[in-house]
Amino acid sequence: MKDLLVATEAIVIGIFVTVFIFWLGNKIVEALPSKLRKVLQPWVFIGPVVILISLFLIYPTVQSIRLSFMEEAIDGSTTWVGLTNYRDIFGDVDFRTMLVNNLTWIAIVPIVVVSIGLAIAQLANNVGPKREKFFKSAIFMPMAISFVSAATIWRLIYSYIPEGQSQTGLLNAMWTAFGGTPQTWLQLEGFKLNNIFLMIIFIWLNVGFAMVLMSAAIKAVPEDTIEAGRMDGASARQLFFRIILPQIWGTALSVFITVLIGAMKIFDIVLAMTGGNYNTNVLAQNFYNEYFIYGNTGKAMATVVVLIAIIAPVMAYQVRHYRKMDMAR
Amino acid sequence: MKKFKRFATKSRLGSTLILILISTIWLLPTVGLLITSMRESTEAQTTGWWNAITHFTPDSWTLQAFADVMSNDGLGSSIVSSFAVTLPATILPLLLAAYAAFGFTFLTFKGREFIFSILIGLLVIPLQGALVPVLKLFLKFTDLTGIEISGQYAAAWFVHAAFAMPLAVYILRNYMMSIPVPLIEAARVDGASNFTIFWRLVLPISVPALASFAIFQFLWVWNDYLIAFVFVGNDHPVLTYKLLSMLGQYGEGWQSVAAGSFVSMSVPLLVFFSLQRYFIRGLTAGAVK
Q1: Average pLDDT, rounded, for chain B
Q2: Alpha helix (H) ranges present in B198-253?
Q3: Which pLDDT belongs to residue B30?
Q4: Mapping DSSP to helix (H, G, I), strand (E, B) and coil, where does residue A248 land?
Q5: Residue B111 with chain A: CB contacts under 8 Å
Q6: Which DSSP symbol is given to A143?
Q7: DSSP letters of B12-42?
Q8: DSSP labels for A183-216?
């Protein structure tokens, strides 16, 4: 209870202080000669954010990059080691497996999420508003669930009990019902099967997101273009692929990229399901292991820089894409 | 036309059937969790959750697991911790972002577009990229002043606020750009200061955008594990943190872990379903133009 009191206090004091600072800043600026006022006033408004992001985003990122060229001793002192950390991680077989795993994630997850999302959106579009709302809510629901809770849910599905006993995991129960022997699903490394079992969790969580956006895009397709296609005798399949799909392509692409970035950063699911064992490790998980488990700052930071280097261009594309659309408005 | 109608009803039935199948698959995992959380302990360990339905006996259903996790595992205090992290980390950045968005939209100054571009550009930085130096920064601050930040809620508030900023300012500025400039000009002519214009005019108009973002931020912070782990940790374990440590301990039993998981899901699900409309509006405003 005390904690909640602290939080409430923080909100009240926080809001009061911020408002007061803005009010005071505004009063001071208003009292200045008009020339100076014009220069300083905007900073009253954007100043706090500029300070916040400089301190907690820009400075730390630069520092992370710097640390990736350093070696940190136990007492916290650092020495410049050049590219040694990078040479170490890229020379490591496990790191290469990791990169392959990350690549598998981004090769499979975004396309599957967008396809299923699109299919559901299209199906839900022609069952009438009441049913549409119900089905959408069911598929959308996992979006509110944390990765850690999702891991609990799916551990129940993937759990393994030795042969001869009653299976508590849904997947093994079905598998043995069809005559298979119980499998330790999360340890099946062949064909990256266990990675795929982890991806299924991510897909389960994210299809709702894709569905909502694709559905909005489908509804925005002008009715007369579809009607015209119908007049010309197009089949339902042709209507979808020739008329609807080209018009929602832009949305599909931005959903694809958003999911792609999410898949690149994948961490919590791997942590909660395997901890990166059984060759399911990924970059973000490796950062966690190197820093928090092995205390290897240099390697952890080099891993992070590799992660940034992979994500940044994709994200930059996405941001430019959005901004261009804003300009066009 | 008649043929088309028949085709339409047929496809409607087909679509419904397929959607029933998909929805069932989508809901089944969560249903399994819910049922497991209400099962008797030994049964939950030895048989699958569907046995609670196929071999139904009233005795095998109990809410004991919920009572257990609340008292034995201290889940009750974790709920409080989660709120203590989430509420300020949602409200404070929202206010700051709204101020800044106002500045970026309605005030002209040198370097405006440049600073805004940098702010948006920071979207490319993944959380992991800034984590360790921020942690070191907090420790250095403690060395200098003796004030503990790391391990306190405030540490998580700052980090969450900073990471929310690029997207929050971006979304809010986009929204504010749709407010007609003459409206602002008229208020200025009437002698209103920017401070007044912000509070009396722009903020009330921006409520839908603020609501959408608040829901996003609330869900994101509530469900976050990494920031809570690094900056708050074991001193005030939040729900995700608690749950993960329960997952790692054997002997907790499925029903306990499931109950804990369900408790941690209940708040975001409640927020989500009661405010779904705003949430969807926010999603679509961000990506479909």
Answers
A1: 87
A2: 203-205, 207-223, 226-227, 239-248
A3: 94
A4: coil
A5: none
A6: G
A7: HHHHHHHHHHHHHHHHHHHHHHHHHHTB-HH
A8: --GGG--GGGHHHHHHHHHHHHHHHHHHHHHHHH
Higher pLDDT, A197 or B122: A197
Q: Say which of A140, A154, A167 has its CB closest to residue B48.
A: A167
User: Is there a contact between A287 and B46 if contact means CB atoms under 8 Å apart?
Assistant: no
How far lies A2's CA from each of A33, B89, B224, B231, in Å?
A: 48, 18, 22, 19
Residue A36: closest CA among chain B residues belongs to which residue? B109
Give residue A153's domain range.
86-328
CB contacts, 8 Å: B88 with chain A: 7, 10-11, 14
Runs of H (alpha helix) within B107-206: 112-121, 128-145, 153-176, 181-189, 194-196, 203-205
> Do both B48 and B154 map to the same domain?
no
Nearest in space to B288 (alpha carbons), one of A226, A322, A98, A201: A322
- Tally C-beta pairs within 8 A across A and B: 325
Q: What is the pLDDT of residues B63-77, one digit of tens each?
A: 888 888 888 778 888
Q: Point out the residues of chain A with pLDDT beneath 70.
A: 1, 325-329
Residue of B16, B97, B122 with shortest CB distance to A131: B16
- Cβ count within 10 A of residue B137: 19
B261 and B156 share one domain:
yes
Put simply, the answer to whether B91 touches A42 (Cβ < 8 Å) is: no
> Nearest C-alpha of chain B: how many angstroms from A11?
5
Does A140 map to a domain? yes
Residue B149 — pLDDT band, cuts 50, 70, 90? confident
Q: For residue B288, what pLDDT band results from cuts at 50, 70 and 90? A: very low
Is B31 touching A (CB cutoff 8 A)? no
In the beta sheet, which residues pair with residue A297? Answer: none
Q: Is residue A65 part of a domain?
A: no
Domain presence at residue A72: no
User: Residues of chain B with pLDDT > 70: what percent?
Assistant: 93
CB contacts of A297 in chain B (<8 Å) are 132
Element housing A252 (H / E) = helix A249-264
Q: Which residues of B, range 174-203, sit inside 8 Å of A by Cβ?
A: 174, 193-195, 198
Q: What is the pLDDT of residues B168-185, one digit of tens each?
A: 998 899 889 988 989 999
Q: Which of B6, B18, B19, B273 to mutate to test the interface with A (most CBs of A within 10 A)?
A: B19
Q: Does the beta-carbon distance from A126 to B11 stay under 8 Å? A: yes
On whether residue B68 sits in a domain, the answer given is no
Confidence (pLDDT) at B250: 60
Based on the domain organization, do A138 and A278 belong to the same domain?
yes
Q: Do A26 and B194 touch (CB under 8 A)?
A: yes
Tokens standing for residue B77: 């205090």
Q: What is the pLDDT of residues A243-275, one digit of tens each?
A: 999 999 988 998 999 899 999 999 999 999 999
Residues 6+ positions from B280 with CB-CB distance below 8 Å: A212
In three-state secondary structure terms, B146 is coil
- Looking at this protein, which amino acid is placed at residue B3? K
Alpha carbons B89 and B263: distance in angstroms, whole number: 21
Residue in B213, B205, B85 with CA at minimum distance from that of residue A11: B85
Whether B90 and B194 share a structural domain: yes
